[in-house]
Amino acid sequence: MDQKSYRRGSFQSATSDEDMLEIAGASMDFSMADDDPPLDREMGAGFSSCNGAGMNSTSTMMDFLEEPLPGVGTYEDFNTIDWVREKSRDRDRHREITNRSKESTWALLHSVSDAFSGWLLMLLIGLLAGSLAGLIDISAHWMTDLKEGVCLAGFWFNHEHCCWKSNTTFTDRDKCPEWKSWSQLILGHGEGAFAYILNYFMYVIWALMFSLLAVLLVKGFAPYACGSGIPEIKTILSGFIIRGYLGKWTLVIKTITLVLAVSSGLSLGKEGPLVHVACCCGNILCHLFTKYRKNEAKRREVLSAAAAAGVSVAFGAPIGGVLFSLEEVSYYFPLKTLWRSFFAALVAAFTLRSINPFGNSRLVLFYVEFHMPWHLLELVPFILLGIFGGLWGAFFIRSNIAWCRRRKTTRLGRYPVLEVLVVTAITAVLAFPNEYTRMSTSELISELFNDCGILDSSKLCEYVNDFNSTKGDDLPDRAAGPGVYTAMWQLALALIMKVFITIFTFGMKVPSGLFIPSMAVGAIVGRLLGVAVEQLAFYHHDWAIFSGWCSQGADCITPGLYAMVGAAACLGGVTRMTVSLVVIMFELTGGLEYIVPLMAAAMTSKWVADAIGREGIYDAHIRLNGYPFLEAKEEFSHKTRAMDVMRPRKNDTPLTVITQDTMTVEDVENIVSSTTYSGYPVVVSRVSQRLVGFVLRRDLIISIDNARKKQDGIVSTSIICFTDYCPPLPPSSPSVLKLRSILDLSPFTVTDETPMEIVVDIFRKLGLRQCLVTHNGKLLGIITKKDVLKHIAQMANQDPESILFN
């Protein structure tokens, strides 16, 4: 049971490419101390204040912890919290406030403010998350357009805003005189080969500048600001502690670098990182309220609501945000958190709507207005899109995890700046010649979702028009013109580029979301299939499958709907979301009547992807990074028992225990200094091995250190007593140190014959750190969360040491 030591300081900001850490833990060593790092002997030095009184004589016995000491009951970095203890402490706090509220008016007001503080916190989180999302949207739009030109009326205007007041015609609305491309600005004209090369060069240079600045800021100030953040947030919400991951610097740097990364044109989105940004807001604002600052379990309820607010502002989907937090992110989601998540998502969406970053007075990102309902026979191509989404999701997860593992285990991981620059250069060079990859991914998806109208000038809408058959705004299905065929080829090339470049982009040392790139892949495939079905129906309307509902001159096929369904299918295949995905998609587009096609595609993609590999992208990254996350959705069906998993095993050294009233301070200090366990069982005696309780290592160190400093009679030969009544001692004996207050008198125990499926269920549902194993009341061993994870991996024929705490 000997454990390795924890390598301190591995998360300090790096100073060179070689020092740049793997955020997910290539330079973490989690293999120590049953979820807790070993603490130095001097760790208690920072907790020297005490509420106890001095001892009057050496024969006095005193409970040194009648009032709580600073630091007792808290957790160190890379620990798992004790959910049961945290919830118990909150109940005790609430009970005390309720009892006091009957004593005075002031206490009653305090009770009311305590009850209201949760809603006030949700309000603040919604306001801050919505404001930051609006700032990110506006900045990213402006900087994306900056790669192609600048507005003479004001450099702070993006292309669209620059041309709002222009007198140009509708068809030339993108060519207003106020907006100048870089070639027009430098050469005085925008035509010709040299002007094209100059625009190409400026596009690549701006992309490289943005990505270089992003990776340098992440590397130098906040290494935790890279990536999506959702795998780590899932782990944190399950009870794990990663100090600084939701801190002030991470919030500031992630906000800035997210704008830079999106503007650089890399194949990534801002939606996933916005969940991280919102959770940072929630964590920081928790410090304003004692109830949440001092209780890790209560704080995680707030973070669940913050995650909902993050998705709400990312997609303009408040209900989808709540369901996303419930289905995909949260580990513990009581009904009270559901209501507060709903309120936070509402406030965040309202704030974003007030800012109006898209300039269209709508909350939705890709508003669609399809004129025709879908037909039952169209479920066949919708299901085909679902199959493609599942295949793409499984392919992407395997490829991306393989690349990320290679980055961790080879020299590639030592040069994050070089990697980001190379991928950015390749992306920019390939993207510029194709107008569908040159535009931002959000604009591309919006164009693909669009239903062609009479005034649309996009290549996707260059059909052969017969205006005699036009009825109002509805256009009949028409023969595709040369513009449509050109757009199809360009979209096919864009698809190939997006499919492969996203594999190498996700996981780099810049903020990178996966929602938008996945949706783009699906939307391209959906639009291609939609146009194909549309042309098939136009040229073969007399076929049996089209007769009766798609006659000649009718508007029956909507390619934009196929793009929307394809986007949902691919996003579902990658993330394995179902309910929340469908709700997000119809909130995102406003296409409420197309729920059934979205449901069919999402469910099909999940079935297909699950048949190939059970894990979604976030769970795969959690496993790759070795986070101690116990997946609640997986079933454990193996017939093993607690005695097969507990430690010590046969031929191991005996379990390290502390007796309740016979060990001295020196004995306990020797045990603590010679082992690295997170806690120790307390027994009646070494002979009987009757269990009394469980004491945490950190609490022991802090309590003994404070007693030595603040109490005159505490020496190395003082007896430590964990009972109410300690055995009588000779008058000349030193003072007894009574530490019953830090003893957990009701640790979770199972018998040695308990099936492991029950043990795993207990760990999942109660969020335990450890569980003691007994036989007829006698202590036999201990099972920690790490032991459970190792056992699950072993039962799945995986090497437990290679995937856990890597």
Tell me about this structure.
- This protein is 51% helix and 5% strand.
- With 806 residues, the chain is mainly α.
- It has 3 domains: 248 residues, Clc chloride channel (Orthogonal Bundle); 242 residues, Clc chloride channel; 161 residues, Roll (CBS-domain).
- The strands form 4 sheets. A 3-stranded parallel beta sheet has the order 1-8-7, with no helix packed on it.
- β5 and β6 form a beta hairpin.
Number of strands: 11
Derived structural class: mainly alpha
CATH superfamily of the largest domain: Clc chloride channel
Share of helical residues: 40-55%
What is the rounded distance between the termini?
Answer: 18 Å
Protein name: Chloride channel protein
Family: Belongs to the chloride channel (TC 2.A.49) family. ClC-5/CLCN5 subfamily.
Domain CBS: 646-710, 742-801
Main location: membrane
Q: Keywords for this structure?
A:
806 residues, mainly alpha, Clc chloride channel, CBS-domain, 28 helices, 11 strands, disordered N terminus
Summarize the structure.
With 806 residues, the protein is mainly α. It has 3 domains: 108-355, Clc chloride channel (Orthogonal Bundle); 376-617, Orthogonal Bundle (Clc chloride channel), CATH 1.10.3080; 642-802, CBS-domain (Roll).
Provide the fold topology:
Elements: E1 62-63, H1 83-100, H2 105-146, E2 149-151, H3 159-162, E3 179-181, H4 182-186, H5 193-221, H6 230-237, H7 248-263, H8 271-286, H9 290-293, H10 296-315, H11 318-329, H12 335-355, H13 379-409, H14 416-431, H15 435-438, H16 441-449, H17 482-505, H18 515-539, H19 559-575, H20 579-589, H21 595-612, H22 617-625, H23 642-645, E4 658-659, H24 665-674, E5 679-683, E6 691-696, H25 697-710, E7 720-721, E8 737-738, E9 749-751, H26 756-766, E10 770-775, E11 778-784, H27 785-795, H28 800-803
Parallel strand pairs: 1-8, 4-5, 7-8, 9-10
Antiparallel strand pairs: 2-3, 5-6, 10-11
Helix pairs in contact: 2-7, 2-8, 2-10, 2-12, 5-7, 5-14, 6-22, 7-8, 8-10, 10-11, 10-12, 11-12, 11-20, 13-17, 13-18, 13-19, 13-21, 13-22, 14-17, 16-18, 17-18, 18-19, 19-20, 19-21, 20-21
